[in-house]
Design brief:
This protein is an alpha+beta fold and 292 residues long. The strands form 5 sheets. The protein has a 4-stranded mixed β-sheet. Strand 1 and strand 2 form a beta hairpin. The radius of gyration is 18 Å and the shape is globular. The relative contact order is 0.20. Zinc ion binds next to strand 7.
C-alpha cells in the first residue's frame, strides 16, 4: 500500500464533515466506551512531557493557548481543544507576533489538544501527545488588529481551498496561504505539515526551489486547514516521532499517485476509519497523567 504510517497517524481531515461526524461519533462512543481523557479540565502538573505518539499518547504539563494572543485567533473555543506542549503554544505565539508586527492577516487556530492530551471523543486519531495543531488556511485581512468575539468565533467554519471536482486548488488559495505555510515550515522545531495533495502540487508548481516545501506533505482532506506536527523534545524519552520524511522536495512522480484510482479508494477507506475511531492502547505513563 502506498500510504505510509507517517500519514496514517495524522488523523484529522474533512474538517467540515468531521464536525458533523464528531457529534454522531461522540454520542455512539460516549455511550459505548466512556473516555476519561475528555473529562479532564486541567493539565497534569509537572514539567512538560509528551508521552507516546500523536495517535496513542498523552501530555504532562500542558499549557493553554491564550484565545487572544497577538496575531492569533483561537477558533471554536467551545471545543476545549486549546492545550498543547509549551513549545507548540510558544511557536504559535511567535508566528502570530511576527504577522501582527508586519500587519499581516492573523492566524486562525482550530484544534490543539485536551488538557491532558489523550484520545478525543471525535474523529481525531491524532492530537494526543500535545505536538499536533490544526491551522485554518483562511486568513481574513479584515481581522487585522481587530477584536472578534469568542461568540462569533464559535460559529465560524473553516473555508475550503480545493476544487474537489477537479482536484486542484481553488481561487481562494493564494500568496496569503503560502506565506502562512512558509512561516511555519521554516521553523526548525516543526517536523512536518500535512496538506491536501492539491495544495502540495500547487507548491511544487510554484515554489519547487524553496527548501521549506520538503516539510509540506500531501494527504487526504486538509483542504480547509493544515495539520502541523512538532518534533519530540529530545528530553521526552518516551515521545515517538513519525517516520523520517523522504529525501527531496516531494515533487517527484510519487506525488502523481494521489490522483490515481487507488488513491481514491484509500481516501474512502481512510474516511471510514475516521468515522469509527477506536480507543488506542496508551503507554503506561499515561495512567499517572490521567490520575493527577
Ligand atoms: Zn489535525
Amino acid at each position: 500500500m502506498r500510504v505510509t504510517t507517517e500519514l496514517t497517524k495524522s488523523g484529522c481531515f474533512y474538517f467540515s464533515l468531521v464536525l458533523i461526524l464528531c457529534q454522531m461519533v461522540s454520542v455512539t462512543w460516549a455511550s459505548a466506551t466512556p473516555n476519561p481523557w475528555a473529562k479532564a479540565t486541567q493539565p497534569a502538573s509537572g514539567a512538560a512531557e509528551s508521552i507516546g505518539s500523536p495517535g496513542a499518547g498523552c501530555l504532562r504539563g500542558a499549557v493553554k493557548l491564550n484565545e487572544d494572543a497577538m496575531g492569533v485567533y483561537l477558533m471554536r473555543p467551545q471545543r476545549g481543544r486549546s492545550y498543547g506542549h509549551p513549545h507548540l503554544v510558544q511557536l504559535i505565539q511567535t508566528v502570530g507576533r511576527e504577522f501582527a508586527n508586519k500587519k499581516a492577516p492573523p492566524i486562525l487556530i482550530g484544534d490543539i489538544g485536551q488538557p491532558k492530551g489523550g484520545p478525543t471523543m471525535s474523529a481525531h486519531a491524532s492530537h494526543q501527545n500535545g505536538l499536533d495543531i490544526d491551522i485554518w488556511y483562511f486568513r481574513p485581512k479584515s481581522w487585522i488588529g481587530r477584536r472578534v468575539s469568542l461568540k462569533q468565533r464559535a460559529k465560524l467554519s473553516a473555508v475550503g481551498m480545493v476544487d474537489k471536482k477537479h482536484l486542484k486548488v481553488n481561487d481562494l488559495f493564494e500568496s496569503n496561504q503560502v506565506e502562512l505555510l512558509r512561516a511555519f515550515a521554516e521553523k526548525p522545531e516543526v517536523d512536518r505539515i500535512l496538506v491536501n495533495f492539491s495544495i502540495k502540487r500547487y507548491l511544487c508548481l510554484n515554489h519547487s526551489k524553496e527548501a521549506w516545501i520538503r516539510k509540506i506533505r500531501p494527504w487526504f482532506g486538509h483542504d480547509s486547514h493544515f495539520h502541523l506536527r512538532l518534533k519530540c523534545d529530545a528530553k521526552d524519552i518516551s515521545c515517538k516521532n513519525g517516520e523520517d520524511i523522504p529525501h527531496g522536495n516531494g515533487c517527484d512522480s510519487s506525488l502523481d499517485w494521489w490522483w490515481s484510482d487507488e488513491a481514491r479508494q484509500e481516501e474512502k477507506k481512510n474516511f471510514e476509519k475516521q468515522s469509527a475511531p477506536v480507543m488506542p492502547t496508551l503507554p503506561s505513563q499515561c495512567d499517572s497523567v490521567l490520575s493527577m
